[in-house]
Write a structure and sequence with these properties.
- This protein has 13 helices and 23 strands.
- The chain is of the alpha+beta class.
- The protein folds into two domains: 3-335, P-loop containing nucleotide triphosphate hydrolases (Rossmann fold, 3-Layer(aba) Sandwich), CATH 3.40.50; 412-447, no CATH class.
- The chain starts with a helix and ends in an 8-residue tail after the last strand.
């Protein structure tokens, strides 16, 4: 930093620089489609994949497009990334009264005691209920802010925050605020209490009143979400936009929505949303064919993204019983990339031709066959990395075209739990000893300094 800026930034009244932590969703295609290149404190380039915490994330689509299922799966997968920490919590406002406890357990693959962390409200709930919860979360994590007449209005007692600092699972040595998760299902049904009780309000007046209330609500909470590391997911339906003048074509509110598609609840929600995923059902899958399940494909389109480019889409395999399948969705990526050969019961991976399989066996093979999993991942992740746009910097001091990074896709914290060993590697200059972590289950070696896969 130059001297002028260094002197200027000695004051702490301009604001603060804050980079949100990023958690993975458990669905690789979504993580990489929203991935980005970041730089550490030393300027080293690294790949960051997943969704930002402390933001507003929307999942929209027509009825039956498995919006709530995706939201629950992402939230519960993110919760698991904090390990056995029982303080991680999610609050599901089921305004549509449509999700059972059993469904949550089925999608999360958890035991009933998980419902002590995943709290679902479905009675006597209003927009004010959500606001009250967020204010209580803020009070617990940050304390009450100083008043408007004090010397530093809005300043929190940081002694509260220290009690809820936890280690960032994806950034060893760094702490983050204890994450919380909030699901609003759905925006089209969430209303303030006084509007619900007003029986005389007409349809048009009702929509306008709800939009105004939502605008005030979301503007008020946007800062609190980031400060308390609370990630808000909402589900919303797509309705058909009607043009008053049939001779004048309607325009899309968001570039990558269709012109006649409308999101109920007002425009402010669209502006403040960090990531918006539009789901669209596609081809049906029969149990007698392909993967052995009765399901369908779902197109997940990034209608808005502040981390990666918008407008891109990926195909996810949906099983009505167990939800979205990460393994089968990844398999489609490999197959569409020409990395799966053969047919019938004789399919095989390009880098593992001796292991033939039928497509119904893929999920079992991936879980139980260590070599199959390793070969599968070795083909998959280089393809997924192509989804991440990289800027070409002039005279980039960190770009070395002579080396190729082998990205492991595993958090440092997880790798550090593996046994550390020393292996001998052959280089152009002879044999060298390299200290690394070794995962015996998948026969994988990780460099002890960079945590990348050793080849």
């Amino acid at each position: 930093m130059n001297k002028f800026l260094d002197d200027l930034m000695q004051s702490n009244e301009f604001g603060e620089v804050s980079t949100p932590p990023v958690f993975k969703t458990g669905i690789d295609l979504l993580d990489y489609r929203n991935g980005r290149i970041t730089y550490d404190s030393k300027g080293n380039k690294q790949i960051t994949v997943g969704f930002n915490l402390g933001k507003i994330i929307g999942i929209i689509g027509k009825p039956g497009s498995a919006k709530t299922t995706l939201a629950i799966q992402i939230i519960t997968n993110m919760m698991k990334q904090m390990g056995d920490n029982k303080d991680i919590s999610a609050f599901h406002y089921d305004f549509e009264r449509s999700t059972s406890d059993e469904r949550v357990l089925q999608l999360s693959k958890e035991t009933p005691d998980f419902l002590n962390q995943y709290i679902k409200f479905n009675s006597k709930i209003y927009q004010e209920s959500v606001h009250s919860l967020l204010m209580k979360i803020r009070e617990l994590k940050l304390g009450k802010p100083s008043g408007p007449k004090t010397k530093n209005p809005g300043v929190y007692d940081l002694s509260h925050a220290e009690k809820y600092l936890v280690e960032d699972p994806f950034n060893s040595g760094s702490n983050i605020m204890l994450p919380s998760f909030l699901l609003l299902d759905s925006i089209s049904v969430m209303m303030p209490r006084d509007i619900i009780l007003d029986e005389e309000q007409g349809t048009n007046m009702l929509a306008a009143a709800v939009a105004k209330a939502n605008a005030n609500f979301f503007r008020k909470i946007i800062g609190d979400l980031g400060d308390t590391m609370t990630t808000l997911f909402y589900v919303n339906h797509l309705t058909k936009k009607i043009s008053i003048n049939p001779m004048q074509p309607v325009s899309a509110n968001i570039n990558f929505l269709d012109p006649d598609e409308n999101m109920p609840g007002g425009r402010v929600i669209e502006y403040l949303t960090d990531l918006l995923i539009k789901l669209k059902t596609g081809k049906k899958i029969k149990a007698s064919e392909e993967f052995g399940i009765d399901g369908f494909l779902v197109e997940a389109k990034f209608a808005k993204s502040r981390s990666n480019k918008a407008g891109v889409a990926c195909a996810l395999v949906f099983n009505p019983e167990t939800g979205y399948s990460n393994t089968l969705s990844n398999y489609l990526v490999l197959k569409n990339s020409g990395l799966v050969k053969g047919g019938g019961r004789g399919f095989y991976l390009e880098n593992y031709p001796e292991r033939k399989f039928a497509q119904k066996e893929i999920e079992t093979l991936y879980l139980e066959d260590k070599k199959f999993k390793k070969c599968f991942d070795q083909l998959l992740f280089p393809v997924l990395e192509t989804y991440i746009p990289q800027s070409k910097l002039v005279n980039d001091p960190y770009e070395d075209s002579s080396t190729k990074e082998v990205f492991s896709g595993r958090p440092e914290k997880e790798i550090k739990k593996l046994p550390k060993i020393v292996v001998e590697m052959e280089t152009d200059e002879g044999s060298i000893e390299v200290e690394c972590y070794y995962d015996e289950k998948i026969d994988e070696y990780y460099d002890a300094e960079t945590f990348e896969v050793l080849e």
